[in-house]
């Protein structure tokens, strides 16, 4: 698919390049912020961005938070530097990541965000399972890193048992909402949990030795479930991310529209090796065919 046809197919992909964001995901955080006011701090804040590469959420943070804020971003993949952001290469499922975060955050976080996603297989049950394991790791890191009253935002796949997940989150946050930004394709099972006012229960102290898990047994032995409020975020008149749009004549800066290159190509995407292998295989087949 050429650059122009992708521009046409996805208004947020085009807008991201025009506004200098590394990925269209930036609009998901911006639209979540429109509804939940997550980034309005009157004094410098500490924010942790988990699974942050290529870095568009960190770019939103660095453009929005008050001067002097501390932003720590980490991902399995290396990230190209962003001014005002500490970028780390680490695995959120590994215990060594928590001390690394503490060392760079230099205090408790006001907000932890996680847009983490595994490489999806297309097998929905498996994808949901891996996604919820990733979310569980993010939640355990957030429980250790957040100050009481802080917020946590994370990507979820809305599967059959998502209500168990909401129940677990409600054990440690006063309000849990399931939010779907306009820029997240309606056809995708992706949504975001917005967890406000971190309130660890009395007598419980977070730690990776005894992490939270998804089993929330009630006294009757059944697993607790919770239906979270569902909120659509962002201007409903804004571009539909599932639609193919007519290309505008001019870019947002008023100049004649032309397709522009992505702001920051991925540094080491997981698909790179697969492409190299396919190319090598292709040339091998061509050589045999000669
Ligand atoms: N929010 C990012 C942005 O705006 O640029 C996009 C994040 S991308 C959708 C998902 C990221 O999750 C990938 O970069 C992937 O490397 C990362 N990821 C997946 N599993 C991870 C893990 N165990 N630890 C750290 N990062 C992980």
TrEMBL record:
Keywords, in A-Z order: Cytoplasm, Methyltransferase, rRNA processing, S-adenosyl-L-methionine, Transferase, tRNA processing
Active site: 155 (proton acceptor)
UniProt catalytic activity: cytidine(32)/guanosine(34) in tRNA + 2 S-adenosyl-L-methionine = 2'-O-methylcytidine(32)/2'-O-methylguanosine(34) in tRNA + 2 S-adenosyl-L-homocysteine + 2 H(+)
E.C. code: 2.1.1.205
Cell compartment(s), UniProt: Cytoplasm
Domain of life where this protein originates: Eukaryota
Ribosomal RNA methyltransferase FtsJ domain: residues covered: 21-198
GO MF entries: tRNA (guanosine(34)-2'-O)-methyltransferase activity
Record protein name field: Putative tRNA (cytidine(32)/guanosine(34)-2'-O)-methyltransferase
Species of origin: Sphaerosporella brunnea
